[in-house]
Design a protein that fits this description.
The complex is a heterodimer. Chain A is of the alpha/beta class. In chain A, 32% of the residues lie in helices and 24% in strands. Chain A has helices at residues 8-29, 31-40, 58-61, 92-110, 129-143, 157-167, 178-192, 208-212, 217-225; strands at residues 54-55, 74-79, 85-90, 115-120, 146-151, 172-177, 199-204, 231-236, 246-248, 255-256, 261-266, 280-286, 296-308, 316-323. Residues 335-340 of chain A have low confidence and may be disordered. In chain B, 40% of the residues lie in helices and 22% in strands. In chain B, the strands form four sheets. Chain B has a seven-stranded mixed β-sheet, with helices on both faces. Classes of the chains: A alpha/beta, B alpha/beta. Chain A: Residues 4-336 form the Acyl-protein synthetase LuxE domain. Chain A: This is Acyl-protein synthetase. Chain A: InterPro entries: ANL_N_sf, LuxE. Chain A: It comes from Actinoplanes sichuanensis.
Chain lengths: 340, 395
């Protein structure tokens, strides 16, 4: 059962009424969301791009939830670039849905079985409470989709070899942040001739560090193919829509929306939706957020839709181009920030 | 440590070189600097340098010196060693506070932020290209150094007066470095500034006067991305009753027109920033309506005067609130409030407002278009007097 099945027309037909219901649901249950929509004077929503969006950073500055305090089952946090932290409130049902749909999305490329798993990270990141919320939580969340975990950064080449001896002749899962995969796994595999041919790599975490080394997504893919790794899926996701990940298709180059999600690219000048080919601010849309009004979020990432219903999977095919540069405020404040 | 102006060497070494209050060598130097800054090519590229050049022209300097030396009850001398920590992001402030202090004859060390750019670089070039008496290079130094607490500590022990710009955080951070017992701080903490518009006054003004008012307001608001301490944030519509809405609409239309003509742009991150903050005001009930007529203008209707935000919410973000009279604003003002820029009021109305405030808030009340004009009296301080010390003599 793939969650990458709906054409754009079918997707919109199915998602729009659900999203319109979510708008009313959150207005009824989150007074702050209702006040925002009332003040901004939103009208009717004839298509997905007309739905009212919230800037994703609002979850860093404001508590927004559509469930009573005593139904909060889990609070997700993310560290932000400026030290601000998003707080995402889940009740039991929402937490279960998020996990289930994340699983369904990954099963599209991993199959129904839990696979042996190589985590390209170090176990100690789970001990460091400060980084735990960001990188650690990602690893921890993904670890539940594998078995017989091995922490690649805690192992020398013999450790990796023994993992491959044990599991390398069957499909296995590799998960890690893009630049760690490049700097550690790829380098070691190339140097020692390790065969990663049955691996399925799921990676994320932005390209900035690799762009600094002049490694493009294409080169990343080509070089990994040289060590046998051809099943590679980058993904894009965020804690504010934790169960929704936008996954790279089998042939690479583009991200796709699962059936319960969509993306809109907006002109940051007029805020109108941009057609394929025109880069702008990326808005992520998902029907999963029921416990907080995170169903339509304007990210601070730039993106572009490459095409619609013309790729590996149906729906919009897009790329993330990087972060919107933060506005450098002028003004009288902020002369002297201590390095500490 | 990068020396940006003045002779390189030990900043805190005792020096035999002395300037006097209103020293002609310094007055000459500043006048020559002013001429460079007022050169058409410079002023065109950096309009804020035009205001600075104007502030430094000889007539203005003479007035400052006269203010320093006018008293008959005491002899006036330089305060001594002054250590300036100006803000990183307003490119001209460092010159204003340094120039008054230099004219008062002090030894000055100015820490120039490594983030300084644009106009600040032009000023530093102009300073270095201006012919100077050797004593000026020995006594006036501008340096850039990183976040080095040891250097800040040494300069703090050296100075008689430490001038800290840059808001509450900067003041708190730098105050961790002790001063000599006889020294003190002159601080410029976080401030908030407002605009007040008389609705009857607007009605009475002809179209040209209205347009001029908006041009002035636009300069006040957009010049430093609405983030200078004296940039107007909330606009209070005063005495309009039912007419307020119509005047606000006309004001915003004119503002959009002026912003268009100036070709000002708001970058996408700033546009998002404004949304985050405006939505935040709505979510907490502080705002009842949000209008986004254009990326460069966000108009926010406040639920009440007490809800006016005191923190920066982005460039071109204008909360509006209505009151019956200026006096109704008095309870909403406090010590943090610095500049109130006005349009359409009578001098008597403004004076009554100032008297009622009683110094408990608001240091400057100025017409639209003058909010960013630096003065020798700033933040409630008479700077020429802060930069000098008095000796009494009874024969």
């Amino acid at each position: 059962m793939s969650v990458f099945s709906l054409s754009q027309a079918d997707r919109e037909k199915r998602l729009l009424p659900q999203l319109v219901d979510l708008v009313s649901h959150h207005r009824r249950h989150c007074v702050r969301y209702d006040r925002i929509l009332t003040a901004a004077g939103v009208g009717s929503f004839s298509d997905i791009s007309a739905l009212p969006w919230l800037p994703v950073r609002l979850f860093k500055t404001l508590e927004l939830k559509s469930i009573p305090d005593d139904e909060v089952f889990k609070v997700l946090t993310s560290s932000g670039t400026t030290g601000e932290v998003s707080r995402i409130y889940l009740d039991k049902a929402a937490a279960a849905t998020q996990t289930r749909q994340l699983g369904a999305t990954l099963q599209t490329v991993l199959g129904p079985q839990r696979l042996p798993m190589l985590i390209v990270d170090t176990k100690s990141i789970l001990k460091d409470r400060r980084s735990f919320s960001a990188r650690g939580a990602g690893v921890l969340g993904m670890a539940t989709f594998g078995r017989d975990h091995m922490w690649a950064l805690d192992e020398d080449v013999d450790g990796l070899r023994s993992f491959l001896v044990k599991h390398g002749d069957q499909p296995f899962l590799i998960f890690g942040f893009t630049y760690l995969v490049w700097l550690h796994l790829y380098e070691i595999a190339r140097e020692h001739g390790l065969d990663l041919g049955n691996g399925i790599l799921i990676h994320s975490g932005g390209w900035k560090k690799l762009v600094d080394q002049a490694v493009s997504p294409e080169e990343f893919r080509n070089r990994l193919a040289a060590v046998g790794l051809t099943r590679i899926h980058n993904f894009y996701g965020m804690v504010e829509q934790i169960g929704t990940i936008f996954l790279e298709g089998p042939t690479g180059g583009s991200l796709y929306c699962p059936d319960f999600a969509d993306v809109v690219v907006r002109d940051p000048e007029t805020w109108a939706e941009l057609p394929p080919g025109k880069p702008g601010l990326l808005e992520v849309v998902s029907t999963l957020p029921t416990s907080y009004p995170g169903h339509v979020l304007l990210t601070e990432d730039l993106g572009v839709v490459h095409g619609v219903d013309d790729g590996d999977w149906p729906g919009k095919r897009f790329s993330v181009l990087g972060r919107l540069p933060r506005a450098e405020a002028r003004g009288c404040s902020d002369t002297y920030r201590s390095a500490a | 440590m990068r020396f940006r102006f003045g002779v390189e060497g030990d900043l805190t070494a005792p020096s035999e070189d002395r300037l006097t209050v209103g020293d002609p060598r310094m007055a000459d130097f500043l006048a020559r600097l002013a001429r460079r800054l007022l050169a058409p090519a410079v002023a065109r590229r950096h309009p804020e340098l035009g205001s600075l050049g104007y502030f430094l022209r000889p007539a203005e300097l003479k007035r400052s010196v006269e203010r320093m030396t006018a008293r008959r009850d005491a002899l006036v001398f330089p305060r001594g060693n002054v250590f300036h920590l100006p803000p990183a992001n307003v490119d001209t402030i460092f010159v204003y506070s340094w120039a008054i202090s230099a004219l008062a004859g002090n030894h000055n060390v100015v820490r120039i932020s490594s983030r300084s750019a644009g106009a600040a670089e032009v000023i530093l070039d102009a300073l270095n290209e201006t012919e100077a008496d050797p004593v000026i290079g020995q006594t006036q130094r501008m340096v850039t150094y990183g976040h080095d607490d040891a250097i800040t500590a040494e300069l703090s022990r050296w100075c008689d007066l430490r001038v800290i710009w840059g808001g509450d955080h900067a003041v708190d951070t730098i105050r961790k470095q002790p001063l000599r017992p006889s020294a003190r701080d002159l601080t410029f903490p976080d401030r908030t500034s407002w605009a007040v518009l008389s609705v009857p006054g607007w009605r009475a003004a002809d179209p040209a006067a209205r347009r001029n008012a908006v041009v002035g307001f636009a300069n006040d608001a957009y010049w430093f991305d609405q983030a200078a301490c004296s940039s107007p944030r909330t606009v209070f519509l005063v005495g309009g009753g039912a007419d307020s809405g119509e005047v606000r609409a006309e004001f915003l239309d004119l503002l959009l027109d002026v912003v268009d003509q100036r070709g000002w742009v708001v970058d996408p991150a700033m546009a998002v920033e404004k949304r985050v903050n405006a939505y935040g005001l709505a979510a907490t009930g502080a705002a009842t309506a949000l209008d986004f007529p254009d990326n460069r203008i966000t108009a926010v209707t406040l639920a009440g005067t007490g809800q006016a935000p005191r923190r920066w919410i982005g460039a071109g973000a204008f909360p509006f609130a209505e009151v019956d009279s200026l006096l109704d604003l008095v309870p909403a003002m406090n010590r943090q409030d610095q500049t109130v820029s006005h349009f359409g009021f009578t001098p008597a109305e403004l004076r009554a407002f100032a008297v009622e405030l009683g110094g408990r808030g608001v240091d400057r009340i100025v017409p639209f278009g003058s909010a960013l004009t630096f003065g020798a009296v700033w933040d409630g301080y008479d700077l020429p007097s802060e930069f000098t010390r008095l000796t009494t003599l009874q024969a």
